[in-house]
Amino acid sequence: MTSGTVRWPALNLALHSGDHCCPSRMLLRKCYRETDLEVPLDSGRQNIRGLNRAGLLFSPGLVVPAHPSRGWSRHSRPVPYPGGDAWAPHLPVVCGRSRSLGTVLGTVQESQPRAPPAVRAPLAMAAPSRLLIRGGRVVNDDFSQVADVLLEDGVVRALGRDLLPPGGAPAGLLVLDAAGKLVLPGGIDTHTHLQFPFMGSRSSDDFHTGTKAALAGGTTMIIDFAIPQKGGSLLEAFETWRSWADPKVCCDYSLHVAVTWWSDQVKEEMKILTRDKGVNSFKMFMAYKDLYMLKDVELYTAFSQCKEIGAVAQVHAENGDLIAEGAKKMLSLGITGPEGHELCRPEVVEAEATLRAITIASAVNCPLYIVHVMSKSAAKVIADARRDGKVVYGEPIAASLGTDGTHYWNKEWHHAAHYVMGPPLRPDPSTPDFLMNLLANGDLTTTGTDHCTFNTCQKALGKDDFTKIPNGVNGVEDRMSVIWEKGVHNGKMDENQFVAVTSTNAAKIFNLYPRKGRIAVGSDADIVIWDPKATRTISAKTHHQAVNFNIFEGMVCHGVPLVTISRGKVVYEAGVFNVAAGDGRFIPRKPFAEYVYKRIQQRDQTCTPTPVEREPYKGEVVTLKARGTEEDSTAGTGKQAHP
Ligand code: URP
Ligand code: ZN
Ligand code: ZN
């Protein structure tokens, strides 16, 4: 071995081979004199923290120029680590040399991703403007190909074989060797609730911790929900959520807006949000009686307005009246623990509302998106409706695909409470497999998480009454690995369908495609380099989600995001972040997504009923009795008498 940069187990980070400083992700220096940057040939495994303590440097976002002949530039100067000693990963390093690139490489073996504290000083300034991902298997929803991907100014600039110039990498180009790895579009989580004020509390992951956790899991975009109180302005809610999110987000995001009551003002604001604010989806609640729930007639008018303005109607499909009655019943039976949450809202409560929502949406020919599909019964309703030709999409979540509702019967109260969400996870343990099969065959379309985390002390608001346990579970960091494990590794879907259900389909439905959800020239450079063979064990001890419990605790997942690239910059890599609050952007979405609305518009043209042309009836017409007389059987009912 000679001197080197760093090679991650599966992914080689080939640093620039020029003779002068250029930005790069990795810097490993064993430097005793300013002008001598060589790492000993036999350096072998080294503890980077030790280097840092000695005033030496290993840091993301900084530059190690590699000398063409010797590996390290003799002209470089040590750069003080901006975060001082505050951050230093415990990663063993093995150095080596890349023959293919003539660049010095090293290796970091990591069995478990580490969770160091955030890098304090943003290193984005030093991030390269150009990045070449070499030799990976680029996976889109329709096909895969081994190719290089060149990223420049936040977008995919080129895609093809052998994009590295014969002379090696020019200055400013960071080369990531992804041979043997998958190169996927970054995940899109269609359903999160970050810093959501809900059920007397506020969800513990805010837009900073939640989006960082997303990046650690290979998700590069989330869609959260702005939710006004009944009687509140939708526009104000939207602006409030933007003011919370914009300064904090580490990845791109967008907002669905909830319709929690109905009036002419709401109708007008939906129009403004769609026309001027980049919102093309609205969530209606059929549950949370007296808080968010709409009546059927309000659903009808809200769906009609969605159709008019080219938005997608989303529903939380549960029968809120039945839940309210069921909850009273359980409490009267002395059932106050988390199991009562499921018992008062069994599968049929979800399935009934799902069918009702589909029926109402179909009546107005409005596209419908069912959020958080949690049960086999509801999923079957959606699959049947799709076979009947309805424009309806189902979104299972990481929780419903990865675990089940048997946990509500766990003897530890806090354990059971951490699974409480609405609709609940189902006690039928065959549910996750069933939902995954439907996701694999296209009956279900997208995946979210409903990430809405509460710490145990917050869940404890309902320690004596399950109706007061704040509803919500984790998943934003876990979704991609859980779906890979249960979907791809288990043999239910291939890598292309994985991409379809983790990003592409969402991008199409919410009109982000092909900017998001695809790796193609011109697409946003939101990419995850994925190791399908590596494993990681999910745990609250190592996750980045700001919550003290993980509903997937102990799950061993094949499929590990090695490197996450957002807006063309490496933002996460094997436990290390290189991203700052506010680096993400709000992504506006235009109405009338073709993927959704082409069929709707076609139906409007061809399927709108027309009257039958007839000769007018010219025969006798019976004379009705005067209202209120004895012969009028409808007297006092308000109905019209029939002959
Ligand atoms: O339990 C849940 N789902 N919490 C968030 C609110 C919602 O209904 O999505
Ligand atoms: Zn919901
Ligand atoms: Zn939700």
Question: Ligands bound here?
Answer: N-(aminocarbonyl)-beta-alanine, zinc ion
Distance between the amino and carboxyl termini: 101 Å
**Annotation, overall tally of beta strands:** 22
Which whole number gives the mean pLDDT?
A: 83
The quaternary state of the protein chains shown equals: single chain
Helix content: 25-40%
Bulk shape? globular
Strand content: 15-25%
Largest sheet entry = 10 strands, mixed
Any low-confidence stretches, pLDDT <50, length ≥5? 1-126
- The number of helical runs is 16
Q: Which structural category do the helix and sheet elements fall into? A: alpha/beta
| Radius of gyration, taken over Cα atoms and rounded to an integer in Å | 28 Å
What does this structure look like?
The chain is of the alpha/beta class and 643 residues long. Helix content is 26%, strand content 20%. It has 16 helices and 22 strands. The strands form 4 sheets. Strands 1, 5, 6, 7, 8, 9, 19, 20, 21 and 22 form a 10-stranded mixed beta sheet that branches. It has a 7-stranded parallel beta sheet with strand order 10-13-14-15-16-17-18. Strands 2-3-4 form a 3-stranded antiparallel beta sheet. The radius of gyration is 28 Å and the shape is globular. The N and C termini lie far apart (101 Å). The relative contact order is 0.14. The model is unreliable at 1-126 (pLDDT under 50). Residues 191, 193, 372, 450 line the site of one zinc ion.
